[in-house]
Each structure stands twice: as structure tokens, then as C-alpha cells.
Specification:
Low-confidence stretches of chain B: 1-31
Distance between the termini of chain A: 40 Å
Shape of chain A: elongated
Radius of gyration of chain B: 18 Å
Helix content of chain A: over 70%
Number of helices of chain B: 10
Largest sheet of chain B: 6 strands, mixed
CATH architecture of chain A: Up-down Bundle
CATH topology of the domain at 39-132 and 198-280 in chain B: Rossmann fold
Structural class of chain A: mainly alpha
Mean pLDDT of chain B: 86
CATH superfamily of chain A: Phosphate transport system protein phou homolog 2, domain 2
Order of helices and strands of chain B: EEEHEEHEHHHHEHEHEEHH
Number of domains of chain A: 1
CATH superfamily of the domain at 39-132 and 198-280 in chain B: P-loop containing nucleotide triphosphate hydrolases
Radius of gyration of chain A: 19 Å
Number of helices of chain A: 7
Order of helices and strands of chain A: HHHHHHH
Strand content of chain B: 15-25%
Oligomer: heterodimer
CATH class of chain A: Mainly Alpha
Low-confidence stretches of chain A: none
Strand order of the largest sheet of chain B: 6-7-8-3-9-10
Shape of chain B: globular
CATH class of the domain at 39-132 and 198-280 in chain B: Alpha Beta
Structural class of chain B: alpha/beta
Mean pLDDT of chain A: 91
Helix content of chain B: 25-40%
Amino acid sequence: MTTHFVNLLEDLRRRASRMASLVEDMVQEACESVVDGNEALARRVIGRDNDVDSEEVAVESEVIRLMALYQPVGSDLRLLCAILKINNDLERIADCAVNVAERARHMERCTLDRHRETIAEMGAFVRSMLRDVVQSFAIEDVETARKAFIEEEHVDALYEQIIKQVVAEGATSSNGMAARLDVLSVAKNLERIADHATNIAEDVIFLSTGEIVRHGDGGPRQNEG
Amino acid sequence: MVMVSDTGSEKRGDVVPTRIAPPSVRRHAGVPRAGACETVIRAQHVTIRYGDFAAVGDVTLDIPDRRVTAIIGPSGCGKSTFLRAMNRMNDFIPTMSLSGSLTYRGEDIYGPRCDAVDLRRRIGMVFQKPNPFPKTIFKNVAWGAAINGYRGDLHVLVERALRRAALWDEVKDKLNQSAFALSGGQQQRLCIARAIALQPDVLLMDEPCSALDPIATARIEDLIGELKAHYTVVLVTHNMQQAARVSDLTAFMYMGELVEFDATDTIFTKPNEQRTQDYITGRFG
């Protein structure tokens, strides 16, 4: 394998990291657009989705090209496999951010006010989790990646909390059902972002160690905590 | 008439009497992830010198039965020297000396009781460049058995060997033509058939595809996959993708040292040694 190939791999790694930064920004702005009721920010998030879609296709094409031309093995193969999967998860995260932003544009403020604190906490936690896994990918930091498995459980707990709150509200009043569904949708999309972030963390562990820890396989994830 | 068998069920050693003891079952933990299989060739602390120069240093590994074991490494790492030691092809180099233990099915290959000619019948070799004899296709395959006093039907022997070498269909109507009329890939398969005709136990292959085009290479690689049902194959190759494609186990050698020996999947996806990682990914070598 040539120095040229090594350089191409590093270019691709940087490109994937740049895409991750873009998606991170979208998630942050989507959360702010909901919590602050900022419709302009929501439109901005929605408008950036095409950029992410284009970048996803470009990164995937480059991975396939490098695999076909260089038949990589070992850590090079793991890097390309990881980028291919992380690329897909990033695109899905961007879709979730767009979903959150779309809810922000139509959400009834008084309904949101009752859940703002939990949504804000969930959003902050998800952003922090995403930032950590993106960073762990950039520097192949397995320990940081593993933290995502615990953090995902916290996000799930917050999601459950919001579901209970919304169900309790529905039991006392049939008004504002659409607004409550918007709140649930926002929470569900944040929870999905955490799931995708966890997938990225699994890919970082595979990239660094060669171990597949999905579905509780491989020990490291099971031993977590 | 003897029926042509392509199942590998015929008894080994029924053509050429051998002074090598019959296989003894040895199961041990020295074979990485290839399942519990018999060790055919065992190297323990083998050092091979050319004069004062140690081409191979302190190599310990087991070659398992009916598996393809690839040996990879940069030029000059000692892989061909180690391969050729397995059937004493290095005996022809006067300055060569070997220390440590190298055994074939429990018998010391370099011990006083081992007959090198017998050994080479059991451990055949295919070289980098196809080297057919200047004879007909038939005689190329039959010659070794004939001069060793084979009393069976040579036509049956030749057909069986050519079938196993995946060459029969291409040459069955021109067995009396010169072997030099064949393409390079066909010549190499003819050389494999020639080795098979002696009903060996092990086939050593030293860069068997390096002189062949991609199509001929693919045929040989397919053939190696089929041969391991009947023979233990040890393959030296510079082509790492070839090692990844055809072998069950891979040994990585560097500067005469065995750096890592493991299942091929492991070597090419998550090797344990940094030097292996650097070599397979082209960082050096």
C-alpha cells in the first residue's frame, strides 16, 4: 500500500469528521429551535439537510472506491468499514435533527412550556453524547466511546419521563393532543439521535480494537458500568 | 483395472515405499484457531544459517494437516529458506546449517534416519516459475512415478493427477504434445500434477503464481482450495491478497523472525502485532 493511499484514508477520515461536526451543529440548532421557539433556526436546520445528504453519498462513494482500488486490510479495512457505517448514522442523525426542527416550527408554546425543562435537559445530554462520540472517532478513544453506552440509558430514562408526563396530561385533558404528540415526537427523535450516537461509539470500538460489541456481543459493552 | 479415484480415499504411500514413519496423531495447542488438527510439520526453535548469516532465527510453528498455511513477509525475510528447509531443498547449498528441531509427522527431517529423497516424495514442491520437463505432457506427470518403479497403471495415475490439478479437461486430447506447448498457467498446473502424481502428503508452493497472469493465478488459487482436501499445503507468497484469499493460517516473517502466526482472518483484520499491522497495510516492506 502506498503513501498515497494512506493520505487518501486520512483525507476521508477528516471528511467524515467534518460531516460529523456539521451534524453536531444541526442537532444543537434543532434543540435550540425547539427550546427557544426560534423558527429561523429551525429553517436553517432543515435547509442544511441537503448538504448532509450530498456529503453522505460522497463519503460512501469514496469508501467504495478505496475498497475497490486498494483492497485494504487490517486497520485500514476497519477504518473504511467504520466510516461507511458512521456516515450512515450521521445522515440519520441529521434526519432526526430535521424532524425536531420541523416540530419546532409548529409546536404550541404553552404545551411545550410544561415539558421545556425535560426537553432541554434531554437535548443537552444528547448533544454532549454526540460531541463525545464524534471526538472519540477523531482520536480513536475507546474509553470515551464506551461512556456512550451509559449515557444512552440516561437518555432513555428522560424519554420515559416525558412519555409519562404526556400520558398523565392526556388523562386529565383531551385538549392539545396535537401539541403533546409534537412533544413526544421531539423526545423520540432525540432518543433516536442517542441510539445513533451509540452506534457510532460501537463503530469506534470496532475501529480501534476489531471487536464487534453490537447487541451485547464481545464483552466490552456487557462489562460496561 | 484400477478405478480412477478423485476422492483422496486411496492409501498414501502405496506407490513409493517410504522410510518416514506413518502419521501419528498429535493434538496440541500450538495451532492457532484451525480446529484440533494433526500437526504435519513442526518447527521448534529453528535457526537456519548461510555461513555466519542467520536467514531464519528461532522459528517455532506447527503446520496443521489438510490446511493451507501461507507464509508472508518482505523479500529476504527468510520465508523461502524456511519453506525449502521443510523438504531439505537447502541441502544443495553447502554453507547452509540448521539448528533446532524440524519434524515431519514426528520424524526429524534433519536426523540421520531421514532419507532426503524419500522425504521429497512425501513433501513435494512447486516453484515460482513453471519448470516442466522437455517431454510430453503425459511423460511429465508419469516420469517421477515410472522411475520410482510404479507398478500400477500409469494412465490411471496420470489422469488422476491431471484431474486433481484441474488440467485434465484441457489436455486430455493432447497428452503426447510437448509440455512447452501449454500456456504458463497450464504449465504450472502441470507441475502441480507432476508433484501430485507422486502422491505426496504435503505440497510446498514457493510463489506459484508470481509468473502468471491474473486469470491463470485465479485458476491456481481455486486449485489450492481444492487441493487442501487431499494435501497439506504450505504457500510462500508476496501477494498478501492471495494469502488472504486461499490460506487458512498465515505466518508473518520479518528479518528471519516469525512475528505472528494466526488464523488468516485474524492476521488480515485484527493482527496482534504492530509489525504485522504495518506490513499488511503497506506501511513498510
